[in-house]
Amino acid sequence: MYKRLFSITLLMMIAVVGGFSTLAQDAVEISIRCKANVQGGEGWRCDNFAEVEEQVEAELGIDINLTLIQDNIDWGDYKQEFVLASEAGQAVDIILSGHEDIGAWAPAGLILPLDDMIEGHEEFADVVSTLWASQEWDGQIWGIPQDAEARPIFYSKLLLADLGWSDEEIESLPERVASGEYTFEDMLQTAEEAIAEGVVEEGNGYWHRTSNGFDWLMPYFASGGEILENGKLVWDSEALLEVYQSVADIQARGITRPDMLGLSGSEVWHPAVSSAEQVLFAQGGIWNWADWAKNYAADLGGNDYLLENIGLILYPAMSDGVPVTVTHPLSYIISSSSENPDVALALIAAVTTPEANNRHAIDSFHLGILNSQVESEDYLNDPTLSKAHYMLDYTRVAPNHPDWAAWSNAYWLGIQAAETGTSTPAEALDLATAQLENEVGDNITYK
After folding, report:
1. CA distance 411 to 140
2. Distance (Å, rounded) from C-alpha 300 to C-alpha 305?
3. What's the structural domain count of the chain?
């Protein structure tokens, strides 16, 4: 049996977990916590476990009392909830969270290494090999990928056609970006042309992310920057300066809106981009597609409309860099509070199958995590999802490192300063570097 709980507070969670001792002692208690946008098709993150509960019970010869806790509260509150419960020794057995939390939670003793148990489950051998790097800290594996993603730049086929592009030019754009033929500067020049010819309004040539997040790593990587070497974070001034110069330039050239940072997603960004009629290029995440089809473009024709009018490309190369994307795998992580980690991992293995992961990937528009999944009929029958899978060959991930938050916050400070014009790009770099030095000192490689 299982219980599904939503919008649970920390105190409620502790009460539920703490109450396990009152249940039948011959059943194994497993609690699982997931953050999911159910309206965006992400409910399978937790719900898949209900589908495999009886299977695992039969395989292990035990009864499992399964508690699923799933809602969509703010990430900060969600993670703080887990940390506080862990410190009280009352955390859930499995938490779904961003892989970057491994870098903080593993050294703090809040989660368990999985290397010794993974070999007992053949399902994990099917995981796309590039995803395992995101689950490592200090030479060990601490999580199992739940999903993968790409963070592409969406382009309006409709507006490119209005600009005079041929069908062949429009459809070949992903390949031209991947080969390096069509660069970031080429994209900006196309945006400028669209503005000059009245295809889009000034400021609507290219829209980027409106807040801090992993997306901002793409221009850094695309500029040739590295972020981790020999276990130490890297602060590459040359690549950083190119990023800060770029965000200043797109403002000075009128390519993006002056109020882009902080722009409302639900009220402005998503309606405009998903319409394919207002914004030429927009950097987002592939999961946006499912949300648009169900909640923003449904009246226009939903998925069929998006397929006809919107395409996806990698983040194009900047100067001497390469085209990239970033993936932020969410991970099933086992708490050190768990009394039955072997059962917890058996449940995770049971949902790490093409059938189970396809339910999540297709409904929420996330990339599959399994090699065999890519060849499955359901996955292949989703034309946009299967065609986007190649992006995993170009993907990078954020590091699992205790100082990652300090690095990210300093980088973001520079982006804000350069884009808003409160500092020149060089001044923005000095400002960001000073903040990072104040936070972490010499515990980083400065280039």
Report:
1. 28
2. 6
3. 2
